[in-house]
Amino acid sequence: MDVKIFQLHKRSVYVFDKIQDQYNINLSKNALALATGFPYSYQSKEWARSLVDSFVANPELDPIALSALFTSVGVEKQADGLATFMGIQIHGALLSYITSGAIAGFHIHKDQTITPFPHKDITELEEDHVVLGRHLLPDVSIAAQQFRKGEINLKWEDKIVLSTHALAKLLMEDKNVMTKLLSLNSFEEFFDYIMELWRDEKLAEDDITFCIIEPLAISASHLYLPPEGFSFPKDTPKEQRRNLQEELARQQSTIAQLKKQKKRIRYAAICLFALLTAAVGYLLFSPSPTEAVVPAPTLSPIVAAKRDSLESYKLALYKQDSLLQQGNLAELPWELKTAMLRPEASLDLHISRQDSLIGTIHLVGITQADTTDLSLPTLKVKNIEKPSSLEKKRLKSLLLTKNKSVKKLKIYIEETNIIFTFPDKSQKSIPLAELIEGK
Fold first, then answer.
1. Above 60 in pLDDT, residue 244?
2. Position 148 confidence tier, pLDDT thresholds 50, 70, 90
3. I want to staple 81 with a disulfide (CB 3.0 to 4.6 A). Which of 44, 64, 73, 226 is the partner?
């Protein structure tokens, strides 16, 4: 694929190093990614950079797998900003994409007709308030809902355009802008045209990224970026006040979007809990000694109002990595042999709607914390009220030595308690005072 990338930062940040739009290209894998950091979220530029770098290194087009990848990257690099994202990969004459948030794509056909994706029109683009943030990805099954994916069949001389939000909005409003941008061949031409659009107030002043991709052409990349040392002139105090007001308005809009997004996730969790509470009740506490039964649930009014059929909700029950049972809600009740659930039952119930995973419920019956007898020696300390860090380390070492038979046991000593975490992630808490005495 042949790729051209044009970029220009907004005037209020003066220098190109402050641009929040980030991209990366991997020609050997025919992959490209584009992300936009939210200006006043912490480390947004670094977070956007992490997203594009990780995608082109390992192009992952499955929403669940990509959520897991981005979550692990955020933890590894301690990036915690907010960003929108689009990644594409081309295999022969097929383009696959995965996207989250208001980054737009355009399929330009040989006859110059234009098909936008994944947003069909400007209304859909403006109503897409999804953002990716590591603190918004605590659960991969929920985070996967934030992605859209699709495929495009390509023909010779087709082009693909990717654009960040401000320019994408204008491209959907005015096709002449697309025609003009496709004709540009230098940063100077791009700069002059964007400045003209800003002066005429046709284009919102924001970071601008415009990517032109010829999917079936010989692999090459062409970058049209501000030259080294380029910067916009400093604003007058009046212009600075206006820019600050504009940035404040953007920040307030971002906060409002995040609140809406959290409400949607919370609403989905409430609906899911209402739907499945009855379904999982008997999994661990069977009504007979030989079998466990999952009863068919009664839809609550809040769920019934969504008009989803029972068949559209699918369940898969796992014990560790072993699938025990799968089906949809209309097929309940299930019958599960007690031997499959005990001893130390630890089950995961995966819930999907229309083939998209929307939640996971972890079920624990008898845990290691319930059944394991720990050896609890005592340690003499100078000050019972406040043992030193060294004394706590000695106690922790002594506890681990005395309980070698419990593999992968983890111990954490707080101010007043000792927390034991077992391999099945169950926990037991013991007061610190019970294991220490004065010298």
1. no
2. very high
3. 44
Q: Do residue 325 and residue 424 come from a single domain?
A: no
What letters, b where the CB count within 10 A reaches 16 and e where it falls short, cover 363-373? ebebbbbeebe
Are residues 206 and 355 both part of a single domain? no
Asked if residue 410 lies in contact with residue 421, where contact means CB atoms within 8 angstroms, the answer is yes
Structure tokens at 239: 């212009």
Q: Based on the fold, state whether residues 159 and 51 are members of the same structural domain.
A: yes
In what helix (H) or strand (E) does residue 351 lie, and over which residues does it extend?
A: strand 346-353
In a domain, 191, yes or no: yes
Residue 343: is the preceding peptide bond cis (ω within 30°)? yes
Please give the radius of gyration of the chain, using alpha carbons only, rounded to the nearest integer.
Answer: 28
Residues forming beta bridges with residue 5, ordered by sequence position:
211, 223
Give residue 349's domain range: 311-329+342-365
Q: Are residues 200 and 147 in the same domain?
A: yes
Q: Are residues 191 and 232 in the same domain?
A: yes
DSSP state for residue 294 in the 8-state scheme: E
- Residue of 360 and 296 predicted with greater confidence: 360
Is the pTM above the cut of 0.90? no
Which two three-digit tokens encode residue 311?
Answer: 């068949």
What are the tens digits of pLDDT across the range 24-81?
A: 999 999 999 999 998 766 778 888 999 999 999 999 999 888 888 887 876 666 556 7
Residues 414 and 355 in one domain: no
pLDDT tens digits, one per residue of 82-140 = 899 999 999 999 999 999 999 999 999 999 999 999 999 999 999 888 888 766 555 55
Sheet order of strands, 356-364 included: 322-328, 313-319, 346-353, 356-364
Supply the pLDDT for residue 60: 92
Distance of CA 139 to the CA centre of its chain: 9
What are the tokens at 420? 């034991």
The Cα angle at residue 193 between residues 108 and 197, in degrees rounded to 5: 95
Total domains, the chain: 3
Last residue of a domain, one of 189, 204, 237: 237
